[in-house]
Structure prediction request, 242 residues.
Amino acid sequence: MIAAATQPAQTLLHLAGELLTPLPEGALWWEAQRLLVVSDLHLEKGSNYAAAGQMLPPYDTSATLARVEKLCATLRPETVISLGDSFHDRRSESRLPAPYAERIRALTSAQDWVWVEGNHDPDPPAHLGGRAAKVLHLGPLVFRHEPTGEAGEVAGHLHPVAKVAGRGRSVRRRCFASDGARLVMPAMGAFAGGLNVLHDAFRPVFPEGCMAFAIGEARVYGVAHRHLLPDGGAGGGGKWRL
Prediction:
């Protein structure tokens, strides 16, 4: 399921017969299609919290856009799919500072940019460029925001994280989750939270369990299901909201 790439800093995975590269920035690269996938950017989450009285540093949108800009400059994709919840709420666009809006328009004009509908942002940001889609089919793969468990599916929404033990302590990292037939993307937003891949919410998607591709500082690490740890009790159940 996992093989070493030509560069040691890369990990590859197979999905529905296609070879994909999970990147340490939290994006997915489909080289055969020159296609970059980002998910759950949650732009302007900081300003949403500030409006509610919870003050966070107002730099999350800039930091998230910087990662996307760097990937586009390095990889030069022909297509970029933003896999839903690109904005944190329906009013995020109205709070978006003009310089950030210009940066988004620069991205959407440089490649075929697709905004996939998410539960936070069902209305496409028309004035920011790009095109909207509820679901996108490309070859054997299907791209949507909320996972259904369909074969060949690339989805977001659940913000997967992996908890593993190492050197006498445990670490918890954002991750890609896949069983070789379907994949759930990590959230890329600077302030986005995460849900343990052993949580009950993942069971309908991966009934036989999944492998985690945990994001490190400079590379992605494959972690077998047997090495994953829950956050709490067995099954990692409990209430959650994303």
